[in-house]
């Protein structure tokens, strides 16, 4: 199998898939929200003084909101 094909023999790239990016981001936000509630409900997480679990959940929520804004702007721009 040759590593390089001349443009005359190469196949055209497939069309991009239609995906619902907003739904994927919302599912991720929901998962981070549930994990935050669980981390707040478990006393061992709060009593150790380590903020890794809570910080990770808050960062996941914040980045999910940034991603949701990005998906919204990209969708509005492509219309």
Automatic annotation (TrEMBL):
List residues traversing the bilayer.
Answer: 24-41, 53-71
What Pfam family does this protein match (any one)? DUF2530
Superkingdom of the organism of origin? Bacteria
The name this protein carries in UniProt is DUF2530 domain-containing protein
Answer yes or no on keyword Transmembrane. yes
Give yes or no: UniProt keyword Membrane. Answer: yes
Keywords of this entry:
Membrane, Transmembrane, Transmembrane helix
Alphabetical list of InterPro entries matching this protein: DUF2530
């Amino acid at each position: 199998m040759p590593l390089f094909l001349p443009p005359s023999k190469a196949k055209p790239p497939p069309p991009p898939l239609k995906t619902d990016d907003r739904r994927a981001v919302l599912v991720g936000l929901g998962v981070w929200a549930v994990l935050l509630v669980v981390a707040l409900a478990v006393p061992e997480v709060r009593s150790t003084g380590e903020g890794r679990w809570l910080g990770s959940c808050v960062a996941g929520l914040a980045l999910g909101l940034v991603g949701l804004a990005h998906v919204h702007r990209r969708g509005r721009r492509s219309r």
